[in-house]
């Protein structure tokens, strides 16, 4: 009986102390980032800093490779006619 009570307590404590993501990114201005998505796609991130280009490539290539359905949804939303496909494919393949 004591083992059962102890087990229930351990499970309850574990459930209440679930880990959270770090708050390190809580102050990033997401609205500002969102206003630049279309321009970044259309211009190969020409206004991005070197670090922004590197991180953008990493994120987008991850989505393309690991989240194929989500990638198709993004392409359909932001470039339904594949007008900018050569631009962003070239950008994603680059290593500058």
Automatic annotation (TrEMBL):
Highest rank taxon of the organism: Eukaryota
Signal peptide location: 1-18
Keywords: Signal
One Pfam family linked to the record: OS-D
InterPro entries listed in its UniProt record: A10/PebIII, OS_D_A10/PebIII_sf
Full protein name: Uncharacterized protein
